[in-house]
Amino acid sequence: MKTQRNLRVLVIDDNHSIHEDFRKILGSPDETDPALSEAEAVLFGEVPRFSAHLKFEITFASQGREACEIVKLACAEGRPFAIAFVDVRMPPGWDGIETISHLWQIDNTLQTVVCTAYSDYMWEEIAQRLGRSDNLLILKKPFDNVEVLQLAHALTRKWQLNLQAQLRMDELDQLVQERTSALRVSEERLRQAQKMEAIGQLAAGVAHDFNNILTVIQGHSSLQLARTNLDPDVTESIQQMASAAERAAALTRQLLAFSRKQVLQRGPVDVNQVITRLSKMLRRLIGEHIELQIDTQPDAPLVRGDSTNIEQIILNLVVNARDAMPKGGVINVSTKIREVTEAEVMENPEAICGTYFLLNVTDTGAGMDQETITRIFEPFFTTKEPGLGTGMGLATVHGIVKQHGGWIEVVSNPGHGSTFHVMLPMATSELDADGEQQAVTIPPGNNRMVLLVEDEEPVRRLVTEVLSRNGYRVLDAESPREAMLLWSRHSDEIVLLFTDMIMPGGVTGRELANALRAERPALTVIYTSGYSADLNDESIDLREGVNYLPKPYHTRALAAVLRGAFCEPQPAV
User: Fold this and answer.
1) pTM of this prediction?
2) pLDDT digits (tens, 9 = 90+) for 399-421
3) Packing angle, helices 96-106 and 123-130, rounded to 10
4) 185-258, what's its fold?
């Protein structure tokens, strides 16, 4: 770091003849005599090297108070002095030592030379009054001209080096502060991500256990409602129970979406097309007091994801934007391609370098402060009044986006609206021609034998009853170990494995299916689960209604997936 050499010198002495001496010693070459120039050459080498560049700018003061005003003005103008030569005796005002103490209060970088004959103060007395400082030197009177010149050169160079060191320290301090601030932001984001992950694990566990309970409630409600001789009041009561179970099931599905434990039907998705398809419904949903603007990038690439879940992302974000503008406003939904750089990854631990499809949803609503932004994706967190929201809308969006391999960035300030930037990975293949599964007809059970593996007894009993009513013979097992024993005895008769994904004992439903299919590759398999981390394993091709039945489920859904399993070609385990 280069700084300009400061050659400003202040001479403080009440004797004007001393002023002239300093002018002759430190003035420009045309103001000095040949003898002095010769002495300078002896001390510092070739005279032109110094005299051509080091032209000291000398200012004089006769008293300490006058000197302080000069130094104040110099500092205010940004042109401080490098050196002050101060005489000790300056009657009738401050003496030299008191003057120096005041000067250092104004500018503590000032290099100071005390000019004394040691008749007024001893060094210990000076040090006691001023304190020990590396900015203080003693010049004994009568002083030698060459000695003065040497001090001027050395101390101006020292002042410059001190300034460079201070500037470098300030620069390093600024870098440390910036880095510390960046680390604090990263640590806070990491803690938030870990908190969200922990909440997700808790939510998934609750949803899993709750889904087992709801499966029993929904299943038995369906069985009772299928009866024709029920009292109308009993029928109404059972229907209310079934309706409440449906609402509870919807809540658990949101919990699973947040915790990223739902099953995705992945494929290439045209997000622009999804937005266009939803636009009419979105306009009805937000009301006439809010303007909906759509700005999609033409010929945008496809996204690899679940079309239904992409719709839910857009729907939830638009509804959230609508709720932020009760008095009306503008919602803008836009798409574009965004390149994420390493610098952005350093600032956001969720980000990954690469090219992404960017979905933006912007509103002109009330906006949010930073504290709210850090919590908006937590399940059940809401800023709405009680009864006006579940607090699961944005939590669901967060879970879906994370499960798709993307992330969300939020930009908002109170009174200035909000923007949600949703990053989604792009697809590498084209859309299917129709994108929909064809309907098929499925034969009934016809006395087929099913191996049922389920660790929850109430669920196991329900499924056994439903399967039996639909013409199946059922061998039920509480664990994979028990299932293997039943398989060893009835492998020739078993045509279908109906298994939960996660069970006690350390063996998953997938591992059980792999073991049985090793003996019979054509074995039909249906998976079911309230949730399972294994469902995120993309090597399993899970198709709802064909080889996968999410909990909780109705008996009609169970019968349908059983019939579908015997009609659709079975995906690989």
Assistant:
1) 0.41
2) 888 888 889 999 999 989 999 99
3) 30
4) Methane Monooxygenase Hydroxylase; Chain G, domain 1 (1.20.58)
